[in-house]
Amino acid sequence: xxxxxxxxxxxxxxxxxxxxxxxxxxxxxxxxxxxxxxxxxxxxxxxxxxxxxxxxxxxxxxxxxxxxxxxxxxxxxxxxxxxxxxxxxxxxxxxxxxxxxxxxxxxxxxxxxxxxxxxxxxxxxxxxxxxxxxxxxxxxxxxxxxxxxxxxxxxxxxxxxxxxxxxxxxxxxxxxxxxxxxxxxxxxxxxxxxxxxxxxxxxxxxxxxxxxxxxxxxxxxxxxxxxxxxxxxxxxxxxxxxxxxxxxxxxxxxxxxxxxxxxxxxxxxxxxxxxxxxxxxxxxxxxxxxxxxxxxxxxxxxxxxxxxxxxxxxxxxxxxxxxxxxxxxxxxxxxxxxxxxxxxxxxxxxxxxxxxxxxxxxxxxxxxxxxxxxxxxxxxxxxxxxxxxxxxxxxxxxxxxxxxxxxxxxxxxxxxxxxxxxxxxxxxxxxxxxxxxxxxxxxxxxxxxxxxxxxxxxxxxxxxxxxxxxxxxxxxxxxxxxx
Length: 483
Known about the structure:
By secondary structure, the chain is of the alpha/beta class. It contains 14 helices and 10 strands. Strands 6-5-7-1-8-9-4-10 form an 8-stranded mixed beta sheet. Strands 2-3 form a two-stranded parallel ribbon. Residues about 475-483 have low confidence and may be disordered. Keywords: Hydrolase. One of its GO terms (molecular function) is phosphoric ester hydrolase activity. This is Phosphoesterase.
């Protein structure tokens, strides 16, 4: 098995709100080596079996409307009753009906043909069928676990704790190895106030493509998708009910950039999802290590993992068709990425007890290096955008997440003004008053919210100098290591 000395670059793309069964449950027949849906026992959920889109239909926006994803909704989906013992995973249909959806739609999953980029990577490299969201919670808590090893006690997307003060893996990398956060419209990592001094490390997605082409990928590259429609594009985050082909095309774009890069021979790439977003999965999440002692007022002690989410691991050292499960009793979760970064680059830690218990991804380095490993590229591009569909997406009611991110962006807006940035940063950090969750001027459509976040980030980037790029790789540094 190859050791971490072979890896000099880690690239992580985190998409939104899909369960393992929803995305990869039909990848291959279920059995001892792959816990998918084909042939799996999926009792419960009002007797509705998992199903896929008929060939002559379009299921690319399912489920619609957006399922429940709050802590209470997830408990209802998993337990369908008292929250005790091993969850029977039997409340997805009833919870979705309570949210106004067609109960059968929550049992829908995608075929491999509907997700060609994700399917090719899962078959050509490694997939984990034992990767759980870090908590049975919404987007922000799970993304906080990825960056900080803890949700700091918050089980839902809430502005009550803003600005979120947790130490992050990026802070621990600062001054040791290069890192960047690449984004499309607004980086959710900007919720974490310890990253505000480093807005120069936040770069637009096109810079990731150029960095990869130049052989100048940072040691850690974190990529956020597009959360809002704009004048030319639909969201590509895969959050229901956004069109999944746009997210699949983003996966292809990121992979193609990495695969063609001079850095490919020393890169590990991970594609995963923050949480299941209410979509059905049949595997009960196990108990988890608490990240820290809970506060007396905390609703949840974070002693359970969330629902399984897709995770695909790619490198020239990864055998095709691999199915990864942690060797010990603790499964993979988002803190496994922190542990992997720490072990790869020799960074002391941990950030939390949860991260300390997490397994790293060394099991993915399970084959002799093959710089020509297929596919050399993935021929998947974004679908043609119907102007009417784009207009409809922009005029659609803003989602809860889109609304919250727009409110955060407005609160950060003065950071884009040279004269007030430093003082405003201190004012936010020292203030104990969170932004109003529903101010009178809150945007009501996805398009309006997107305009706000893009304008704010454009101004912040304009006054934030980009970090110096790493030196271009010398001929010796592009050789494949770990033979």
